[in-house]
Design brief:
alpha+beta; transmembrane helix; transmembrane; 152 residues; single chain
Amino acid sequence: MTSSYPAALPLLIGIVAAAVTAFGLTGYGFSAIGRGGPGAVARGGAALAGALAAVAYVWGLVALFLDDSGTAQACQDANPTLYGHVSGYSVSYLPPALNCRMSSGGSYSAAVPGFLTPVMTGCAVIAVTLVLIAVAEDRRSTTSEHPEKRTT
């Protein structure tokens, strides 16, 4: 059986970096909404969506880190009926995942809840969309405040 155990140092660095990012984005998001102005809600919403994506990422990395019993136990706990066919493991840090590879060629996930990747992806898409809306709002308000800068 081949294995690729999650390395503790990259997990810890990722957890700390994502947690600090989530904290910073949360603070910025609420303060941006509180200040008001053109695009404030979109900017704040983008920051809060990014913070939620970072929290989901931390959750996934923590799930990998807490799997100190080893990947074999995680694979057995995730699907006891398929565990006898496991030939190896693979770890992904983005998105966080532990895959139990079977000798038949398939795989199944263990340790990290399956809903985290869709949550991270959805929040990232929402954040990017809101950033684009905020930029458009800022440009529109700048153009309306300074009509001489309009291009026709």
